[in-house]
Known about the structure:
By secondary structure, the protein is an all-beta fold. The protein is 0% helix and 46% strand. The protein is built from no helices and 17 strands. The strands form four sheets. It has a six-stranded mixed sheet, with no helix packed on it. Strands 1-3-8-7 form a four-stranded antiparallel sheet, with no helix packed on it. A four-stranded antiparallel sheet has the order 11-12-16-15, with no helix packed on it. It is elongated. The model is unreliable at 4-8 (pLDDT under 50).
Amino acid sequence: MRQLLAFFVGLSLTVLVQPQDQIGIQFQTDPVLVLSGTEIQFTVLTAPNVLSMTWLYEGVTLGLFAGGSPVINQVPQFLGRVTITATQLRIGSAQLGDAGIYTVEVVPLASTGLTPNSRSVPLRVFDAVSGVTVSVPSAATEGVNITLTCTSGGTELTFQWGKDGAAVTEDGRITIAGGSLVINPGQRADAGDYTCTVSNQTDLTPQS
Length: 208
């Protein structure tokens, strides 16, 4: 009786797939900080040969630039304020409610060998510092609580106190909270010329 021996040879085929790089995206400014009423500008630094560039705000499409011209989506919040160019989104007359996350989606030409990419950037909008005033007690008594108060228009404000040209810092007697400087208890050495400097995170010169 003959035995039939069968041999099976497994064949495998390996296909090498070269990963494609995504097109690079970099914002000229990140994050973007602007004053209310001024123009917002998002500028993208990216490779040439882009097929399209689409802009979104919190997931809502504002428009795109493709084929050498823009297409603007009529979003009620931004109506009449949006301009889109090949590398830039501009929004006129910034409002506090415009703050949030903006995203750009870039599709390169097939000839570049690159794949689409997206990147987001936060926008913060501030009201300018204005009308800084300091109120002090008409009479301060040694041994009791003394409170100085600084008020100002604007948003996201930072207050810095000074006395006779030097910065005031907190210690066991001095507490600084927002626009208030509390000295407890007051001492004779606390007499002097106090200033309050107010600023926010825009590139404006602080006011005092």
